[in-house]
Design brief:
The complex is a heterodimer of chains A (about 260) and B (about 220).
Chain A lengths: L10 H5 L17 E2 L19 E5 L3 E14 L3 E13 L5 H11 L5 E12 L5 E14 L4 E5 L3 E6 L2 H6 L4 E15 L4 E5 L5 E3 L4 E14 L3 H4 L8 E13 L7 H4 L1
Antiparallel strand pairs in A: 1-10, 2-3, 3-5, 3-7, 4-5, 6-9, 6-12, 7-9, 8-9, 10-13, 11-13, 12-13
Chain B lengths: L2 E5 L2 E6 L5 E4 L3 E13 L6 H11 L5 E12 L5 E14 L4 E5 L3 E6 L5 H11 L4 E15 L3 E6 L5 E3 L4 E14 L3 H4 L8 E14 L6
Classes of the chains: A mainly beta (about 260), B mainly beta (about 220).
C-alpha cells in the first residue's frame, strides 16, 4: 500500500516543470494514483543518473533527450527538432536482429524504430500525445508497440504473447516488451495515471484504457457478460483485465475502440 | 502586452480606444465592454496593393479588426495558442496559423524564393508553407496557433537547430533557413528513418516547434 511516491524523483522532470507526484496525496480508492511522471529511480544503481542519454519532458507532450555520443531508439519519424549533430537510421524489424524481425512479422506486432545517435539535444513528439517517462531497473515493461515513443539504446525490446487480453484491447495477441536498465517514454491519449498493484489490492482496468504495465504482475481476463448484455442492456464494460501481483499499470483517460466497449 | 493567456487554448486581449487588434475572423469567443468587430476586406494592413499581394500569394486569411474598449477572448478550433512578443524583430509565420496580433505590427508577405532561390521554393513546398509566408515586424504581441503544445528552441550562431518541416510553426529573429536532406540509399529502398528532410535554421533568434506532425 505504501506507494513509492516519496518525491525523490528525477530532478530533470522537476526542472522541466511537469507535475511530479505530490507527496502525501490522498489515496484514491484502494490504490494510490501516482502522478504520471512520479516514477522515480529509487533503488536504482548509484551510477544510474550518470547513465548516457538524459530523458526529460518539456511540457507534457514533448520529450527532450540530451545525448553525448550515445544512441537512443525512437519511433520512426517522431523527431520534431534537434540541435548539434544527429544521425537517424532505421532499425529494421525493431532492432532485434533477424530472429526478432521474423517474430515481429509473424506476430503482427510490427514497429518501425529508428536509431538516433549524436551529440546535442533532440526533441521528440508524436501527434500531440501525452508522454510518460518510465524508469526501468532491470524489470520488464509491457507496452503496445504503437504506444512506445523512445527507449534508451541499452534497453532490449522483444515480443510476448498476451492471449485473450490482447484481442479484447483491439491490439492483437502480442505485445512489446522492453527490459533492462534505463528509461523509456510511452505515449498516451490524455495524461496517464499510474496505478499500483500490490498482492492485497488487485486492480481491474478497462482494456481500451490500458496502455502499459511493469513489474511482477499476472494478468487475467474477466468478463461481466450476463444475460443483460445479450438483451442489449450491457453497461459498456463487459470485459476487463485484472492485474494481480506487484507492479504498476498505466491507464489513459481515453478508450480505444474495442469490441468490449460495444457490449 | 495586450494578450494574456487564460489557459493553453484561450487568450484574452485588452483593447483600448485608439488601439487596434487584428484577429482571424470568427475567432472571438466572448467579450466585455464596448468592442466592435469589423471584417477587414483587405485582410490586414497596407492598403489595396498589399491586399492584392496577399491574394496573389494566397496568404489572405479572413481577418477582422477589433476596436473599442474592453476585453475579448479568442480561441479557435481547440488549437493550442502560443503568444510571442516581438521587440523589433521579424516573425515569419503561416497566415492560417495567425490567431490575433497587435495592430501596431507591420504585416507583410515574403516570397520563399527570396531566401535561397529555387531551394527556398522547394522548402516552402515541403514545409507546407507554399511559395509565400507572412511576416510581422515591430513591437507587439502575436498569438499563433499550433496542434499540440509548442516549445521554443533558441537558435544561436554556434548551434544551428534542425526542425522537422511538418512540426515547424514559426520563427523570429535574424535566422536563415535552408532545407537539408539526409537522403541515403536506405530512403530509396523504402527503409528510411522518416527524417529525410529537415529544416536547418541558423543565425540568432528562436524557432517554435509543435508537438505534432499534423497540420492545422
Amino acid at each position: 500500500m505504501d506507494a513509492q511516491t516519496s518525491a525523490h524523483c528525477d530532478s530533470q522532470a522537476r526542472a522541466s516543470g511537469t507535475g511530479v507526484g505530490k507527496e502525501g496525496s490522498a489515496p484514491r480508492g484502494r490504490f494510490r494514483a501516482i502522478s504520471a511522471f512520479g516514477i522515480c529511480c529509487r533503488g536504482c544503481p548509484a551510477g544510474y543518473l550518470r547513465h548516457v542519454a538524459m530523458f526529460r519532458l518539456q511540457g507534457s507532450k514533448v520529450l527532450a533527450i540530451d545525448m553525448t555520443g550515445d544512441a537512443v531508439k525512437a519511433k520512426n519519424g517522431s523527431m520534431v527538432a534537434y540541435d548539434g549533430q544527429m544521425g537517424f537510421k532505421k532499425l529494421s524489424g525493431g532492432g532485434e536482429g533477424i530472429r526478432g524481425m521474423v517474430t515481429r512479422r509473424i506476430t503482427g506486432e510490427q514497429m518501425t524504430l529508428m536509431e538516433v545517435k549524436g551529440h546535442g539535444t533532440c526533441w521528440f513528439a508524436d501527434r500531440a500525445s501525452e508522454i510518460n517517462l518510465v524508469a526501468l531497473q532491470g524489470d520488464t515493461l509491457y507496452v503496445e508497440s504503437s504506444n512506445l515513443l523512445a527507449t534508451d539504446g541499452g534497453l532490449r525490446t522483444g515480443t510476448s504473447f498476451t492471449g485473450l487480453r490482447g484481442a479484447s484491447q483491439g491490439n492483437g495477441l502480442f505485445t512489446t516488451t522492453v527490459e533492462g536498465h534505463g528509461q523509456a517514454a510511452i505515449m498516451s491519449d490524455g495524461p496517464a495515471v499510474v496505478l499500483r498493484v500490490s498482492p492485497q489490492f488487485p486492480l481491474t482496468v478497462d482494456p481500451g484504457a490500458y496502455i502499459a504495465h511493469q513489474g511482477n504482475v499476472r494478468q487475467s481476463f474477466q468478463s461481466g457478460v450476463s444475460f443483460r448484455t445479450f438483451m442489449g442492456e450491457g453497461g459498456g464494460e463487459a470485459f476487463q483485465i485484472r492485474f494481480e501481483g506487484d507492479g504498476l499499470v498505466y491507464v489513459q483517460p481515453s478508450e480505444r475502440n474495442t469490441i468490449a466497449g460495444d457490449v | 502586452m495586450p494578450f494574456r493567456e487564460i489557459n493553453s487554448k484561450m487568450i484574452e486581449a485588452t483593447v483600448m480606444p485608439g488601439q487596434r487588434v487584428f484577429s482571424q475572423r470568427g475567432a472571438m469567443l466572448a467579450y466585455k465592454g464596448e468592442v466592435s468587430f469589423t471584417p477587414n476586406i483587405q485582410g490586414g494592413q497596407g492598403g489595396i496593393m498589399s491586399m492584392i499581394g496577399r491574394r496573389v500569394a494566397n496568404e489572405a486569411t479572413p481577418l477582422m479588426t477589433v476596436e473599442g474598449s474592453g476585453t475579448v477572448l479568442f480561441g479557435h478550433g481547440g488549437h493550442h495558442i502560443q503568444v510571442i512578443s516581438l521587440a523589433g524583430d521579424t516573425l515569419c509565420v503561416e497566415a492560417d496559423r495567425l490567431l490575433a496580433f497587435d495592430g501596431t505590427l507591420q504585416q507583410g508577405t515574403m516570397f520563399m524564393g527570396s531566401q535561397g532561390g529555387v531551394m527556398g521554393m522547394v522548402r516552402g513546398q515541403v514545409t507546407g508553407q507554399g511559395l509565400f509566408t507572412t511576416t510581422l515586424k515591430g513591437h507587439g504581441a502575436v498569438a499563433v496557433m499550433a496542434h499540440g503544445g509548442v516549445i521554443e528552441v533558441p537558435i544561436t550562431p554556434q548551434r544551428p537547430v534542425h526542425v522537422d518541416p511538418q512540426a515547424y510553426v514559426a520563427h523570429h529573429g535574424d535566422v536563415r533557413n535552408k532545407l537539408s536532406t539526409a537522403l541515403g540509399w536506405r530512403d530509396m529502398v523504402g527503409r528510411g528513418s522518416g527524417e529525410a528532410f529537415q529544416l536547418e535554421l541558423s543565425g540568432s533568434g528562436a524557432v517554435y516547434v509543435q508537438a505534432s506532425e499534423e497540420k492545422l
